[in-house]
TrEMBL record:
Matching InterPro entries: Cro/C1-type_HTH, Lambda_DNA-bd_dom_sf, Tscrpt_reg_BetR_N
Domain HTH cro/C1-type, residue spans: 26-68
Name of the protein this chain belongs to: BetR domain-containing protein
Record organism: Pseudobacter ginsenosidimutans
Molecular-function annotations in GO: DNA binding
Gene3D superfamilies named among the record's database cross-references: lambda repressor-like DNA-binding domains
Pfam families, A to Z: BetR (PF08667)
Length: 330
């Protein structure tokens, strides 16, 4: 394949990953400091991009040069936001996720598919006590923030208002997308274990803080059941007449995979895999996406759909989850 064709394919690939309202020529002109005529000459392959421009393009659009040139058929480039920054406050992690979700909803067609080894983390921000607890847990126990290491959890001392505000915005953006979620009875186990650990280790300052978190855990499950019943995603207090994203809620009682998020954005595929609890890596590699979507669809074919239909199975599933959570009161 000659250099001109490769260069045309480069810009075709970039164009495909941009939302419809973003002009490739204007975006490149701003990035490279070039006139519109100079940009279009490069897009058409009439003017070769130099190495400095190619470096800037690959960095800005998160492209793999070896992937573009097909130098290694088994190599997949992943992006890992924040991996070079060391430990950052949890609020910054939340803000980064919010920006990602705003990017997702900038596309006309936006579909999100979630393989839920754990509960999708944005749902923890539906209700204040659970939102505060999860923010404290992630910040103290996972992110190892020094100022929290000797602190006990209480809602009064740690309301986590900023993370709750960002979490609510995350939910608003998420609810603009059509969702397919694949759950398992173990999808809430890690959160149950976190609450139980803090209870047994005496990290709840008062019993009323524990009970408030458990109450909100139950409220979250009640809300998720209501979403499944209606087949849409919505916020507490929303009118069902308000525009909402659709929800297909599946349960698989046998197979438990990794936390995996797959997105279809104007027919462009994005794959995300979580690591280190709340961090994630993502790729636009079409081969990886094809394999990930294929596996997801295979799991769906062996799962039970409990949104809109399947009332008996839906009630059984959520009643079982509530029974598990209520045991935390003991």
């Amino acid at each position: 394949m000659d250099a001109k064709v490769l260069q045309q394919l480069l810009f075709k690939k970039i164009k495909e990953q941009l939302p419809e309202h973003v002009s490739l020529a204007e975006d490149l002109g701003e990035l490279l400091g070039l006139s519109p005529d100079s940009v279009y000459r490069r897009i058409r392959g009439e003017k070769p991009v130099d190495l400095e421009e190619l470096q800037a393009i690959c960095r800005h659009y998160h492209l793999s040069l070896d992937g573009l040139l097909q130098l290694n058929a088994d190599a997949v480039l992943f992006q890992a936001p924040g991996v070079s920054n060391g430990s950052v406050p949890f609020e910054k992690h939340m803000q980064g996720m919010l920006e990602q979700f705003k990017y997702f909803t900038s596309f006309r067609k936006r579909e999100i598919f979630y393989l839920c080894k754990d509960t999708p983390f944005w749902y923890f921000f539906l209700f204040p006590a659970m939102a505060s607890f999860k923010t404290f847990f992630w910040s103290r126990t996972i992110n190892n923030q020094p100022e929290l290491q000797q602190e006990l959890f209480s809602l009064e001392a740690f309301p986590a208002e900023e993370c709750r505000r960002i979490g609510w915005q995350l939910l608003e953006e998420h609810n603009k997308m059509d969702s397919t979620e694949l759950w398992n009875l173990e999808s809430i186990h890690s959160s149950i274990n976190q609450v139980a650990y803090y209870r047994d280790a005496g990290i709840f300052r008062e019993r009323k803080d524990l009970l408030a978190v458990v109450d909100d855990f139950i409220r979250m499950l009640d809300h998720l059941q209501q979403q499944a019943e209606q087949g849409i995603t919505f916020l507490p207090g929303d009118s069902l007449l308000k525009p909402h994203g659709s929800l297909h809620f599946y349960v698989n009682e046998l197979i438990l995979g990794n936390n995996t998020i797959l997105l279809n954005l104007d027919d462009q595929k994005l794959s995300m895999v979580t690591y280190s609890v709340f961090n994630y890596i993502s790729t636009r590699d079409t081969r990886f996406a094809a394999k990930a979507f294929g596996t997801f669809n295979t799991l769906l074919s062996r799962s039970s759909l409990i949104s809109r239909s399947g009332e008996k199975e839906r009630n059984k599933f959520f009643n079982t989850l509530r029974d598990k959570v209520n045991q935390l009161r003991n």
